[in-house]
Amino acid sequence: MDLFQAEIQARKERESARAVLRPLTTKLAQLEGRLANVTTLLDGGTRITTSDLAEFYTYFPQANHEKLETVEFYHHELSRILRSQLEEQQHVYRAQIEHLTEQIRQKKAHILALGESAFLDEETYNHALEVHGTVLRLEVQIKIYDEKEELRNQRKHLLEDLLGKAVTGAITADFKAVMNEVNSELYPHGDRKVCPKFRFKVTTKGINYEFDHCGDRGSGAKSRHVAIFDVAMLRHTPLPFLIHDSAIIKLVGHAPVRELLSVYMQSASLQQS
Predict the structure, then answer these.
(1) Domain span at 194
(2) Is residue 235 part of a domain?
(3) Do the beta carbons of residue 72 and residue 159 sit within 8 Å?
(4) Region 151-161 average pLDDT
(5) What integer pLDDT is reported at residue 4 of this predicted model?
(6) I want to staple 35 with a disulfide (CB 3.0 to 4.6 A). Which of 60, 93, 106, 214 is the partner?
(7) CA distance 159 to 76
(8) pLDDT of 89-110, one tens digit each?
(9) Strands 197-203, 206-212: parallel, antiparallel or unpaired by DSSP?
(10) Among 157, 31, 133, which residue's Cα sits nearest to residue 90?
(11) pTM above the 0.70 mark?
């Protein structure tokens, strides 16, 4: 009778010890998953270097160096701050994992000291713990991946917004001034026609544009507005540009558009020479 009661007591102690071990193992698996994702983020970062921008300028010499480098400066600063935070979090996770690993080692040693269970041997139990830990790590990785995708989308929208305000807004203002200048030259004696308006639109689908005829949508006005746009664009950049407006497609047609592009290319080479 005393031996039977001793076995019951030992079994209760083993069950109690395992009940304490399970949440520790679960927490360890979660921390290991988080540490793995933080390490992946630290190892997989990409940054645009000065040499990358220098190569970009060789193909686009008219690009606004100051605005591009300002945007990239903020990008680098955000990356530096994020990396510092990730390294600090990595250190915290490693310390927590080390502490939990020692606790788990002590609990397992205590369970082994109490002897094997009559219903579940240590090998089977450890295998179940490993499978359970793997499932938990995968769940954490899936959650981290979803959060990472959300952060990537937020970062994309933030950079698009910054680009729209710092770069496309400035380009729109500069180009508007050039179109007004061209319009003034076309009508130097005061009989000035309404100048079209052009501006970029930064949306979740990308960068688009608006070309406003300012209420004058007659065939002559549309043709004049397209001509003002083309001349202003040729003054603004050596690259060939053609507005994707229904007016020029309907009034000019595909064959003349090809010829117009050829003229643009010749003009670009003349400006570069």
Answers:
(1) 172-272
(2) yes
(3) no
(4) 72
(5) 45
(6) 93
(7) 12
(8) 888 888 888 888 888 888 777 7
(9) antiparallel
(10) 31
(11) no
